[in-house]
Amino acid sequence: MTTIVAVKKNGIVSIAADTLTTFGNTRLHASQDGSHDKILHVGDSYIGVCGSAAHHLVLSSLLAKTADVKLTSKASIFETFRKLHPVLKEECFLNPKEDEEDPYESSQITALIANATGIYGIYSMREVFEYTQFWAIGSGHEFALGAMHLAYKQSESAENIARIGVEAGIAYDKNSAAPITLYCVDLKY
Asked: Residue 7: in which H helix or E strand, if any?
């Protein structure tokens, strides 16, 4: 799957990801993948997407042609993805089924958003979380969280902490590999 992290520290927001794509047991390394960056640039935001490889292309296409994309608060992210859900189903043929016990239809998307207002996570039922320091998603997220927990206390650089998180995912998660893509934004208070 992947390791994607976002970090907020000392007025900087950083988002970073590995670049490996997997199809079951098959690995497609960045050197063989013409579009290996898992982080989308949408307006003033960066969106790291994990899960199905189709999500990247679908979100890139839909967010580029959607007029009212706002990703600057929990409420605006929720509204943007709420409005995208029926479009995902009707135009992109999303299968919204996960578990019969689920209270809502799934959008099947897990993503981290980084911009000048902070870092946010969006999950399959359009749950939105705002993170105050750092977070990670993907199959390498546990390794990344542990590494960033220690690095956050020791480093003053959001970029360095993000890199350490993804490097931990790459070291221990079989579905993550170098090189790393990383973007930084100045935080607006």
From this structure: strand 4-9
Using a 10 angstrom Cβ sphere, with 0-12 exposed, 13-18 middle and 19 or more buried, the burial of residue 24 is exposed
> Within its chain, how far is the Cα of 164 from the centroid?
16
> What six digits make up the tokens of 44?
């003033």
CA distance 176 to 4: 10
Determine contact, residues 188/38, Cβ cutoff 8 Å.
no
Strands, DSSP E only, in 61-162?
A: 110-115, 118-122, 128-131, 134-137
pLDDT in tens, 25-83: 899 999 999 989 999 999 999 999 998 888 888 999 898 888 789 999 999 999 999 99
- 108: closest CA among 118, 116, 99? 99
Q: 142-172: per-residue pLDDT in tens?
A: 999 999 999 999 999 999 999 999 999 999 9
Token pair belonging to 3: 């390791």
Rounded CA separation 169/87 (Å): 33
